[in-house]
Write a structure and sequence with these properties.
Two copies of one chain form a homodimer. By secondary structure, chain A is of the alpha/beta class. Chain A contains seven helices and 13 strands. Chain A has a single domain, classed as Survival protein SurE-like phosphatase/nucleotidase (Stationary-phase Survival Protein Sure Homolog, Chain: A). In chain A, helix 1 packs across helix 4 and helix 2 packs parallel to helix 3.
């Protein structure tokens, strides 16, 4: 088995290190990750700049390959240029901070797993609902289990798993739930400042706000202390709305003759 | 009515100019767009750099506001810092190149409309299936019609419209179809080069490949000469797979006791 480990917090992130060590207990593991933090980059790819790959060592031990560019770039480079053959599984994380609700669309952690899925690799994103880096053990234990399950069962074409781990000691974890993506919003705002030359600039601020209390959704289940597993795809069609919009008569009223 | 126009090709793009002029025939229009091309940035937002806003003029005529950062940044800044109140509609484009199939997840054009939707604004992304910039008339005519329809009918919460225009003269357009997102893949690869100092670097190459011949999907309908309209949401749950994965017994086998 070959396991590709990546993330969006960059190759030096402790969550990546913990995940890579856990994966090595399963089988051959290669780390390919962005050379710096790339949080909130969404599914960006780099078309207008060249990309580079650097081998990274710490205390003479080979850590993995750092890539310039985004998490999706790192996955493409890992699969097409670094590994000799397609890995059996890809896991992205362990992200510092949950990826539930609307944050999925901003998440570099999830986008790395999406890119793996596009390349035909069973892929998992894993995030820890914490802003500190102290204890990865619940997340790494679950990562080993879910990777083994994916290796055994496979994943349907075009589907990845998005996993979130509550920041709780093992004895306080309520259980594991397979849930849908919940609803969140952002109360974002900009803080206006002035630079030393008198020019205005802005910092994006704000936090995620839960707009969901359905216990079968990731937002609520995670807040209630469950490990959440959400199957995610990239068919973005709002099927419920297809019918509704057909009632508008766009197809008739704005037909060829009308143009 | 207030209309917010944005794009991912940058404030100087001819497709943005054509779209803004068309929107001005409807009502008050404000342009807020990235200060440079931001294609394939996905739903990136800028958290670790400050953002700036610049007023842009051409031939003494005010064009709009240029923002450093991504299309999603531009929309957030436009709504929170530039406009006095939330616009009645947002339209992003006209993109040079179609946004169908899997390219939706990479598209800055679509992500700007997604950000508008997250902010509670009825939003539309519009793209022209062409790599040249010569004739925007079919796209601008349709943009005026679809914006008027959205202003009249509204859009369901959390849903945007993704519009694609074939590169055909008006008389060869086959009609308008409301369709689902189709399937595509990418035959991407990296071209390896050496810089003047002897270091390796890579350019991302490749094109989109249709993997879909369903005439009710955007990929095929657009190729057959139809204007396509796809309702898009950002609930990424693969509902079909929820049941399948529950059969694995993750919830039981990997329960609290097992951790």
């Amino acid at each position: 088995m070959t396991i590709l480990v990546t993330n969006d917090d960059g190759i030096y992130a402790p969550g990546l290190d913990a995940l890579a060590k856990a994966m090595k207990t399963i089988d051959n593991t290669t780390v390919v990750a962005p050379d710096r933090e790339q949080s909130a980059v969404g599914h960006a790819i780099t078309l207008s700049n060249p990309l580079r790959i650097t081998e990274v060592y710490r205390d003479r031990e080979f850590l993995g390959y750092a890539c310039s560019g985004t998490p999706a770039d790192a996955v493409k480079l890992g699969v097409k240029e670094i590994l000799d053959e397609k890995p059996d599984v890809l896991i992205s994380g362990i992200n510092v901070g949950a990826n539930v609700g609307a944050s999925l669309i901003y998440s570099g952690t999830v986008s790395a797993a999406t890119e793996g899925t596009l390349l035909g690799i069973p892929s998992i994103a894993i995030s820890l609902d914490s802003r500190s880096n102290d204890d990865w053990s619940v997340a790494t234990d679950f990562a080993i289990k879910i990777v083994n399950m994916v290796l055994k069962n496979g994943l349907p074409e075009g589907v990845l798993l998005n996993v979130n781990i509550p920041k709780l000691p093992p004895e306080n974890i309520q259980g594991i739930k397979i849930v849908a993506q919940g609803k969140t919003n952002f109360n974002d705002f900009f803080e206006e400042r002035e630079d030393p030359r008198g020019h205005k600039y802005f910092w994006m601020c704000g936090t995620m706000v839960a707009e969901d209390d359905n216990p079968e959704h990731d937002v609520t289940a995670l807040a209630q202390g469950y490990i959440t597993v959400t199957p995610v795809h990239y068919n973005l069609t709002a099927y419920d709305t297809l019918k509704e919009i057909r009632k508008w008569g766009i197809e008739n009223e704005l037909g060829v003759d009308a143009i």
